[in-house]
Every structure is written in structure tokens, then in C-alpha cells.
Write a structure and sequence with these properties.
This protein is of the alpha+beta class. Among the domains are: 131 residues, Beta Polymerase, domain 2 (2-Layer Sandwich), CATH 3.30.460; 52 residues, no CATH class. Helix content is 53%, strand content 11%. It is built from 21 helices and 11 strands. The strands form 3 sheets. The protein has a 7-stranded mixed sheet. A two-stranded antiparallel ribbon has the order 6-7. β4 and β5 form a beta hairpin. The longest helix has 19 residues. The protein binds adenosine-5'-triphosphate and magnesium ion. The site of adenosine-5'-triphosphate (ATP) has 12 residues, from α7. The site of adenosine-5'-triphosphate has 12 residues, from α7.
Length: 409
């Protein structure tokens, strides 16, 4: 059973018990746009208690706000009681909810295109907010006065940019003006939620337009201290040159590509990314330029190729070069590097060292930094192919030790 089928089954069950039940929000928008919806949400006049009674398997995730998850087969459907939100004292969370009807539930939603319902039984769209007209015009417009709606919840400003980016829609004039006027308020939203929206903006194929909106709205500089000017413009150009599908780390590295590594890393920290994402993004930013040295040593080449993020680094460098312009020649170093890589065949990039620390000590090396240096240089010789067997390695290590003893004396 698909998520859509599961949601429709939930609607039928609720309607069968005399309730009003409709598909709601994003899935209606996507259905009308003939896009694949991420999830199918149900809105109903049934109270959370009714929902948990009518379905065998449910999760009470936010019953206080009227939200119950119904488990159907392997899927799950979010079922929310029609509600109106009131009293956003903090610009983030509604203070209280009141259970109401479909029209009022539509009015509390963020944008007209997100405010529609669909009755899959009657096959009928219920549009209380002019969503269909805005879908036709291809614009993102707040429901109600934009100033008020952004003051209630500052995250909506980023959501506007996000939907505009993902759908390729414009942002309606008053909505855009209100974002520009209130962008500074975004700093009151938690890093995690900002990062989630930013990920959706920057991983969209339309990410260059999204990044430009982030900059021109003032949202980017409100989130990242000192984000703007030529450095920010470089980021937009690089984002426009990345492959269609990218992960968040690569997109972030593109976004910050105009900045020095230290400054970019400081900006990234604002987002409180996971350790993995931080490492991944940091690797890409700090290794910019490396792949242009297509004549790097074989050991260096194998080492960088063995990095799990090598392909991302290659894509980033390619985008940086293309964004820099200056004709076809800019890709020559990367093409030469790729040729070298192809010529390597499927050679082992990170072979087991021919000798380990114990072996080296048996040859007379003393534990300490000297041993580390010997092991490292020997491993480079192994990667270069200068040393190919354990016997050769022992010879090489003995010579190394003699040479260094002579220096020490
Ligand atoms: P996606 O396809 O990315 O899931 P979506 O439109 O479904 O987009 P969600 O974040 O899943 O967006 O939220 C579901 C619906 O809830 C939205 O379509 C909108 O009607 C409403 N909504 C979500 N967040 C807000 C918000 N901050 N303020 C007002 N309404 C919101
Ligand atoms: Mg959704």
C-alpha cells in the first residue's frame, strides 16, 4: 500500500463514521502540480480521541495540537484535527490551539498554495484561500497579511524561499517585501530548523536561484555573520555549476566557496551540523585547489582518491573552475587528473602497510616520533610503487635507519 492509498483509506474510514476528512496541504499542492508528494496528510473534524479509537494502531505524537499518526501496513499517515493557532508570543510556537473547521484550518496555514484540501472520495478540491489561482500564477503568497504571518513564525520566511526554489515559483510582491523587512528575525529560529530548510533550498536543482533569494532577502546575512558581497556572489555562481543532484555537504561547500576556509567553517558552525556533515563540508572547503595539481605524486593521488568524499571534491572543483569562467581551458587540469586516475585501473588505494610498527622495531627503530616518521615515509614509498615486497621494505627501512642515525650523530 502506498502512502497515498493509506491516506485515502484513512479518509474513507473517517468519512464512513460521519466525519469530515480531507487530504491537506503539501500533497494537494503537489497533486495539482502533478508532482510526486513527499507525504500525504489528512485533516479532519474528528478529535484526536476519535482518531485513536477508530484505528487500531496509532501514535499520539502531538495530540495536544490535534495530531495523531495512524499506522497502516508499512506506512503512516498524519491525521490532524482542524485547528486554528493563536498567540504566537515567541515567533516560533503557537501558544494555544483551538479545534475548528476546515476554513479556519486553511487560514492558519502558511501559503495559499499549501492551504488547500482535497476530498479523494468526491474528487473535489476545497480552496478557501485562493491557492489554485496562485498555483496558476506560479507564486508563493502568504495567507493573510505577510507581515503578520512572518511575525507569528519567522521560519515561514525561509519556507517561502524554499517553496519558491523547489517549485520554480516567484514570491508575490508583498510577501517578498515582508521577508526583506523582517529577515533579521530569522536569527530567533533554532539552528536545526534553519539547517533543515537550507538543506531543501541548496539541494534543489534550482539551488542557485534559491541562494540568490537567500542573499537578496537579507536572510543569509542574518543567519551567517558577514555573508554578502563578492564572496557570496561567487557561491551563487558555483551552486549554478554543480551537478543536478548533490548532497547537503557539497551544496554548502558551494554556497561558501567564495570565502576563505576559516571564515566558511565559522559560518557553517552556526548551523550546528552533525559531526559527519561538519567533517564532510570541512574536507571539501579545505581541499579546494588540491585537484588542480594534476601532477601530484602518485602517493598523494592515491591518498586523495581513497577519501570517501573524493567525487564531491572533484565536482566542487569543477564547479568552481567553471564558475570562474575564462573559457574552455579551465577544465584542462581536472581532465588531466581524471586521465591519470583512469590509467590507474583498479589498483589498491590504501593497501595494508608492508611492515608494521613491530616489524620496524625489530629492525632497530625506537618507539617514538622517529618511528612514526619512518612508517609514514615507508608507506609513501609503498604507494609510489618504489617498495613492493616485505623484503624490499626491510631493506628500505634499514637504509633509512642508517641514514638517520648518521644524521643524529
Ligand atoms: P513538503 O512537500 O516539503 O513536505 P509541505 O507543504 O508538505 O512540503 P510540511 O512542512 O510537510 O510542508 O507541512 C505540511 C503543511 O502544514 C504545509 O503544506 C502547510 O499547510 C502547513 N505548515 C507547515 N509548516 C507551517 C508553518 N510554519 N506555518 C503554517 N503552516 C505550516
Ligand atoms: Mg509535507
Amino acid at each position: 500500500m502506498t502512502n497515498r492509498e493509506a491516506a485515502i483509506r484513512v479518509v474513507r474510514t473517517l468519512q464512513g463514521k460521519g466525519h469530515e476528512a480531507l487530504l491537506a496541504g503539501g500533497c494537494v499542492r503537489d497533486m495539482l502540480l502533478r508532482r510526486r508528494a513527499k507525504d500525504y496528510d489528512v485533516a479532519t473534524d474528528a478529535r484526536p480521541g476519535d482518531v485513536t479509537r477508530l484505528f487500531r494502531r496509532t501514535l499520539k505524537v502531538g495530540a495536544k495540537f490535534g495530531v495523531v499518526i495512524v499506522l497502516m501496513g508499512a506506512g503512516q499517515v498524519e491525521v490532524a484535527t482542524f485547528r486554528s493557532d493563536s498567540g504566537y508570543a515567541d515567533g516560533r510556537h503557537p501558544g494555544a490551539v483551538e479545534f475548528t473547521n476546515a476554513a479556519e484550518d486553511a487560514a492558519r496555514r502558511d501559503f495559499t498554495i499549501n492551504g488547500m484540501f482535497y476530498d479523494p472520495v468526491k474528487r473535489e478540491v476545497l480552496d478557501y484561500v485562493g491557492g489554485r489561482a496562485d498555483l496558476k500564477k506560479r507564486v508563493v503568497r502568504t495567507i493573510g497579511r505577510a507581515e503578520d504571518r512572518f511575525a507569528e513564525d519567522h521560519l515561514r520566511m525561509m519556507r517561502a524561499v524554499r517553496f519558491s526554489t523547489q517549485l520554480g515559483f516567484g514570491i508575490e510582491r508583498a510577501t517578498w517585501a515582508a521577508i526583506r523587512g523582517n529577515a533579521a528575525g530569522i536569527s530567533r529560529i533554532s539552528a536545526e530548523r534553519i539547517a533543515m530548510e537550507l538543506e531543501l533550498i541548496l539541494t534543489s536543482p534550482n539551488r542557485a536561484a534559491g541562494a540568490l533569494m537567500m542573499i537578496e532577502s537579507g536572510l543569509a546575512s542574518s543567519i551567517f555573520d558577514g555573508f554578502g558581497g563578492r564572496e557570496a556572489d561567487v557561491g551563487v555562481c558555483v551552486l549554478g555549476r554543480l551537478p543536478k543532484r548533490v548532497d547537503f555537504a557539497l551544496a554548502l561547500a558551494g554556497f561558501f566557496a567564495g570565502f576563505e576556509t576559516e571564515s566558511a567553517a565559522r559560518k557553517c558552525r552556526v548551523l550546528k551540523l552533525s559531526r559527519n556533515l561538519t567533517r564532510h563540508t570541512g574536507f571539501l572547503l579545505s581541499n579546494r585547489g588540491k585537484l588542480l595539481r594534476y601532477d601530484m605524486s602518485l602517493a598523494e593521488l592515491k591518498t586523495v582518491l581513497a577519501e570517501p568524499y573524493f567525487e564531491d571534491l572533484y565536482d566542487l572543483e569543477k564547479a568552481i573552475q567553471r564558475a570562474g569562467g575564462r573559457g574552455r581551458g579551465v577544465l584542462v587540469p581536472l581532465m588531466k587528473l581524471r586521465k591519470r586516475i583512469n590509467a590507474l585501473g583498479d589498483v589498491e588505494l590504501r593497501p595494508k602497510p608492508l611492515l608494521n610498527g613491530h616489524d620496524l622495531m625489530r629492525l632497530g627503530a625506537v618507539a617514538g616520533p622517529g618511528l612514526g616518521q619512518l612508517a609514514e615515509e615507508l608507506y609513501v614509498a609503498q604507494l609510489e610503487g618504489a617498495v613492493q615486497t616485505a623484503g624490499q621494505a626491510r631493506l628500505w627501512a634499514r637504509e633509512w635507519l642508517e641514514k638517520h642515525r648518521a644524521i643524529d650523530k
